[in-house]
Design goal:
single chain, alpha/beta, Rossmann fold, 9-stranded mixed beta sheet, 9 helices, 15 strands, 37% helix, globular
């Protein structure tokens, strides 16, 4: 497994984010082993429509994607998930040359790589531990030939618009000339549907969000009392995004990295954004990032979208 200079910046990011006003924590740190497990539980919840909807669209789109890409393409997945979505794509492609899953969570990456290797005997599986929001090199042993990026799950929605454009530019640089990209993006819809998807009745999303504080306790020596914070999902109609927050139930002081950080009652830590898109807006972001759209698929209810992009 290639480790592309995996950053050890959890403490630095936390200190910087919690010193800001308003307080923030980068969402990439949600995905340790426990966070990855909880997120997989989220994807199976009745309120959480994105995963099952995308899994309905992908089989319908895969034949057209395969025809557009041709034989021998190497698939590079930005954020590997559990490997289930890319398996649908790989099964449709003609003689794919390799699969390169890229993820910051090594445990999740190992599981995805093992699943694909078992389902695709003979396919070169070359995992890379890296922060895919930054530039990273592809494995030296990756065969020459066309590249297909795969970025499902509307993970692009975690970025601000400027960050999304930056990611798309870096992905284009990583994948090289003539590359294509399969991109999943969630669509704007009723706020009640969105808020339920990010604050489920079973409390799994709350546990996922609070696990970030538990991770800081485990890995950075913090002393957060998890019961002193609550999860909250908010729809921001101006920016058309769902925001996840951890809200202090009472005034308190937390120690992190030898520093004391005060919280007022009701003060929140903004942990994640999930932007929702209108097709014209996503098309603009793709073009700004150096891509043009070749095809767009949605489900009958218009909940989710899958795009095929080509490096411009």
């Amino acid at each position: 497994m290639l480790d592309a200079a995996m950053p050890s910046g959890l403490l630095a990011d936390a200190l910087a984010g919690l010193a800001a006003s308003p307080k923030t924590l980068p969402c990439k740190w949600l995905y340790d082993a426990e966070g990855a497990r909880l997120f997989e539980d989220i994807t199976r919840l009745p309120e959480y429509y994105p995963t099952r909807t995308e899994m309905l669209i992908l089989p319908q789109a895969s034949a057209a994607i395969a025809a557009a890409c041709g034989p021998g393409v190497a698939v590079v997945e930005f954020g590997s998930g559990d490997g289930s979505k890319v398996s649908v794509l790989l099964s449709a492609l003609e003689s794919p040359s390799a699969y390169v899953p890229v993820d910051i969570a090594a445990e999740w990456l190992d599981a995805a790589a093992a699943r694909v290797a078992a389902e695709q005997p003979g396919l070169a599986v070359l995992p890379v531990v890296a922060d895919f929001t930054q530039y990273f090199p592809l494995p030296a042993e990756l065969p020459a030939g066309p590249r297909l990026g795969f970025f499902p799950g509307s993970t692009i929605g975690n970025f601000t618009p400027d960050e999304a454009v930056g990611f798309l530019r870096r992905a284009r640089e990583v994948l090289g000339h003539g590359a294509r990209m399969v991109l999943g993006a969630d669509l704007v819809k009723a706020p009640a549907v969105l808020e339920a998807a990010y604050d489920d009745a079973q409390g799994v999303t709350a546990a996922f969000n609070l696990n970030l504080l538990a991770r800081l306790n485990r890995e950075a020596g913090a002393d957060f009392e998890l019961a002193s914070f609550r999860h909250e999902a908010r729809w921001n109609p101006v920016l058309e995004r769902v925001e996840m927050h951890l809200v202090a139930r009472r005034a308190q002081v937390v120690t992190l990295g030898g520093q004391r950080i005060g919280f007022a009652e009701g003060e929140s830590i903004h942990t994640e954004n999930s932007h929702k898109y209108r097709p014209d807006r996503l098309r603009q972001l793709a073009e700004a990032g150096g891509w043009r759209d070749l095809a767009l698929w949605t489900d009958p209810a218009g909940l989710f979208s899958v795009w095929l992009l080509e490096a411009a």
